[in-house]
Specification:
Radius of gyration: 17 Å
Structural class: alpha/beta
Distance between the termini: 32 Å
Largest sheet: 7 strands, parallel
Mean pLDDT: 96
Strand order of the largest sheet: 3-2-4-1-5-6-7
Number of strands: 7
Amino acid sequence: MAVLVITGTGTEVGKTVTTAAVAATAVAAGRSVAVLKPAQTGVRPDERGDADEVARLAGAVTTLELARYPEPLAPATAARRACLPPVRPVAVAKAAAELASEYDLVLVEGAGGLLVRFDDEGATLAEAASLLDAPVLVVASAGLGTLNTTELTARELRRRGLDLAGVVIGSWPGSPDLASLCNLADLPVVAEAPLLGALPAGAGAYPVADFRAEAPGWLASRLGGTWDGNAFISAQGV
């Protein structure tokens, strides 16, 4: 997989940290990695964005932002309010393809969920994934409510003929509640795709050396890691 598109079921589900874990795992395996952030919102020009955070955690990765908007809004809204040009799926696909000609793995991290709009015409990350013919990794939350948002995202990917690589839980709590424990079995069912990992809550605050050393253990083999879903579920006492 030369290009992997990473989306979330919503905001604050652990998408950036998951992107960093995938990148760190690939770097540890000796692969060259580039991270593309089509639209960064809510960050001033002098502040660090999501791609910068991925590089901090993962190490030797190349990063590229196509657009940055100051207000923490959907990209289309943020671009319109800032009187700046929006991001277009064709530009995203072109940038990712160019990076893929130079790097072993290109990670394209979206903003928010799959159907968050890039422009006022309604273009989204899904169109960019389609142009790239790239698999999509969905990052989901652990607890109550995640089944609905995950299934909606998975259904939309299938409706568009896109390849759903699998689901990663972006923040697994240290003391999971009943809903979270049950969701370990239910998420793959509603997504009709495998569970490909679970990142511990607060992983983004780990010391960098610890994050890079532990990241492969949070991700399944399809993402280059060593995470065993059955063993993980058994360890939770489910």
